[in-house]
Amino acid sequence: MDEKAVSNPPLLTAQDRDALAQLQLLAHGVVEGLTAGRHRSPHKGASVEFKEHRQYVRGDEIRSIDWKLFGKTDRLYIRQYEDETNLRSMILLDQSGSMAYRSAKPAAISKHQFGVRLAACLATLLIAQQDSVGVATLDTDLQAVVPPRSRPNHLQAIYELLVRSTPSNETSLSQALKQATPQLKRRGVLFLISDCFDDVNAILNSLRYFRHTGSEVIVFQVWDRDELEFPFRNRTEFRSLERVSQQRLVDPLSLRKAYLQRVAEFRQSFSQGCAKERIELFECTTDQSYAELLKAYMAHRGGGRRRGAARLAARPLDLVADNKEPR
Amino acid sequence: MSFLNILLLGGAAAFLAPLAIHLLNRSRFQAVDWGAMHFLEAALQVNARRPQWESWLLLLLRCLIPILFAMGLARPVLTQLQVSGADGEQSLVVLLDNSVSMGVANGEVTALRSAVEATTGLAQRYRAAEFSVWSTGDQPRDVLNGTTFDPVRIERELAGLEANAGTEAAVAGLLAGIEQLGKMSNPSKQLVFMSDFQASQWSSLGDAQWSGIKQRLSAGPVPIQLSLLRLPLTAAADPTASTQNLAIRILPNDNWPVLPNESYRTEGLVTNYGSIAQDGVRVAFRVAQRDMASRTLSVPAGGTAQVSFACEFSSLGQHRIEMELINNEQLATDRLAADNRYQQVVSVIAPPKILLIDELAEPGSQASSDYLSMALAPFKSSAVGNPFQVEVARSAQLRPDKLQAYAAIVLTDVTRLEDEAVAAVLDFVRSGGGLMIFAGPRLDADWYNAKLHDEHPLLPMQFSSRQMAKPAEPMKLANERIQVPWLTIFHSSAAGDLASLEFSEWYELVAAKPLMRESLASERIASFEQSAAPHAAAEPMAASDELNRLLQFSNGMPWLVASRFGNGRVVQCATSCSEDGSNLPLQPVYLPLMQRLLAQLAVGSGDAIPSVTTSPPAADRPQSDGALTTPIDPRESDLRLISDAELKLLAEQLGATAVDSVDQFVEQEQVRSQGQEVWRWLIAALLAILFGELLLGQKITRGSS
């Protein structure tokens, strides 16, 4: 939909270029580490194999007629081949305001920065596997799109989009997801990198649409540890990253128990919804290693299909240490 | 409520500190740009429904901590506990028990000395109080002879007080103290009773007495505050040892008269008040402070043992005999020394002279007085002394100048007397002589009634008609318990059987005038018995006309009656003293009965000292002049005390408070007059709040995690 933005991306600033270089370095480093030692096929199109014949009907391409068989049988048959094995994937990066949260810990990064780097790593990994990959950013709407391509130089466009992404606006993930459906008309893999701070049912409904097209949906739910542990002790004014006017001055100690309860309920609800919709859910925190995360993903790709995504999604993730004292 | 250090109360303002910290914390906060606002909002909604009382309670506790601390330092006094009217200057009466048991030593200090120190301590503490001190041993006595404000005088006057005042008089002492407080002017009235509270003394007193005293305490315009202060009598760790005590006393002796150079037998009674049997208890017997003999005996726990000694007195006059527990190992544990010695004064007299008036007294002839004369002076030999010197005369010889030598006169069936003789007899009896009248067949009853009853009220009763019994049915004496103490020896037949007496003729004795309320003889004997054995005084003589009748017939008519006339006494008998009309002189009981009757009459003659005196001087301070003092009450020797619970119960019955020391009394008095200091409660509350704050803080922190 935003083809203009895709075809003519704004010029990168010097800062963006530095960020881009870092992102490339990070993504390649992570992917090289993951794929080192693995055999890569030198043949292109080797996967195009004959499957069966069927009778010609009007409208079939003339070039697909098996002329040799016509010569023998005097009938028109169409040669059918195995479909392409190249993966068509789309990475959706949430850049809503809530993704801008960054812990006060030193060297901490925001959820958005984490998402950007994770998306870059994923794109690099997929391109390296000869798969087509595209990237889109979204908040209340679909903001920018790089359509799926498998060319290696396609990564540059993806990186540039990711570098230019800045978190802002409110979250309306379900609406933005609906707008992203044309980007993955054919069966493929949809990667959603988001904190999923929206109505659980609305998100699941939107993702269900991708599932109906036969696509696989993988959600990387990004948390900051602060959001899971709520370590605040002194009186704190919480200012919304999405709505400027929304702010709350509270005593965190008295609020912590109820807050953690709500978070736990949300996580459980979302996790159960994903399992039900056969959506693979990876909960991650911003202090996690991308390599470990991708390793988990690749392990899932290697055998997860046979075991089923629900099983993976239901796997408890040790993200929160409940007995941690608030700070 | 008031405060002793009210300035320190300002420290309570420190409660502002936690409040300020709270407010400061509220104004200072950190800002966080937060993404997960929808979780926060949801949590806020839940928290809004939950009460925040824990936080407010925590703030309240933190504010209370400095307030309670400051109040504790300011020493608050709860004036609500102040007794109305108790404030102001005090009138204080101290009742000091200086009975013998207060001489028990607790270490180096006797209980009485502790009481004296407590009293002087009170005087030092209450210098503005008006003091009066009474001793309650035997009889209440005003030790200070009035009241004083001077502690030095109190100390000086009490220095000489000793625990030798006989028996504790608790009730009389309390009443005297209440009366004394009524005379004192200061508005706050305090009565402090200091005693050892012996069980033998206090347990015997009844509820009626206590309720009466309680009424008296609250009867005045300002109620009297009574405090019972128990002195540390029993400091011994072993309660058994604390009551260990041996006591000796000489039993009353009714051998009368005691004549010179005749054997005199006396008995002592050793009592063991402890719970451990005592063997080898040695008793020394002394006459005039000379050791005469000693005996060794065993005394069971809580029991008694008798010891007997005999001696002779060579001269007339009073002789002091003494028994003492000596050189006993057991005495090392004996807590009361005062009752280890007992003294008695024995009066040795020449035989009293008795004049028998007999109209038939002729040498060689049978006379009415023959039997009586033999009964009173049975021995003809001079080697053995007769108890009486008897002379027989006719009534014509009754002359005033002649009667001075006699202790008693006996009219043995005398028909009548000449006027001069009547006057002589009247003077004789009036001046203290004894008169006994026997009524035989020769007696002119009308003359007696007119002359000696109606004209001169000498006779106790009138002679009425002369009665005669059938030979087969002689009159006998009533078989009933004899009330007169000195005749009680006839309860046993060993002294003679009164039931063997049979009468065929007698006069009816009737009362034409109100009978005496008490027989004088009975009174004298009763006092005799009381002085010898105070514990027996618990059975007082009833003031009844019947007591005038010494003995009576089985039909209820009197046989022997007695009355007082002037300083003397008269005994009237309804029969003869000879064999006329009865078998009286032929019975064994005749001799002891007549001797006892005449002895009693002789005792009452004039102001003569009783022949036998059983009242010893104070055991540890023998009186050189032989003055008669109260002997030690056996109850004083029993050192068991009433228990603390009983003392509290007693205090409740009296509306009093039981205290153990002067300090406790002062503390209670301070509460009564000023109120209760409550800083200890506040500090306890402070500690509780500190603990509660800790717990609540932990709970809130844990609840938020």
Description:
The complex is a heterodimer of chains A (327) and B (705). Chain A has 327 residues and is an alpha/beta fold. Chain A contains eleven helices and ten strands. Chain A has helices at residues 3-7, 14-35, 67-73, 111-128, 154-164, 173-180, 200-212, 225-229, 252-276, 290-307, 309-314; strands at residues 50-55, 77-81, 88-94, 132-138, 142-149, 189-194, 216-223, 236-240, 247-250, 280-285. Chain A has a six-stranded mixed sheet with strand order 5-4-3-6-7-10, with helices on both faces. Chain A has a two-stranded antiparallel ribbon with strand order 1-2. Chain A has a two-stranded antiparallel ribbon with strand order 8-9. The termini of chain A are far apart. Residues 514-547 and 605-629 of chain B have low confidence and may be disordered. Chain B has a seven-stranded mixed sheet with strand order 19-18-20-21-28-27-26. A six-stranded mixed sheet of chain B has the order 8-7-4-9-10-30, with helices on both faces. In chain B, strands 14-13-16-17-29 form a five-stranded antiparallel sheet, with no helix packed on it. In chain B, strand 20, helix 12 and strand 21 (434-438) form a beta-alpha-beta unit. Chain B contains 19 helices and 31 strands. The two termini of chain B are 45 Å apart. By secondary structure, chain B is α/β, with parallel strands linked by helices. In chain B, 31% of the residues lie in helices and 24% in strands. Chain B is elongated and about 150 Å long. Chains A and B meet through strand 8, strand 9 and helix 9 of A and strand 2, helix 2 and helix 19 of B.
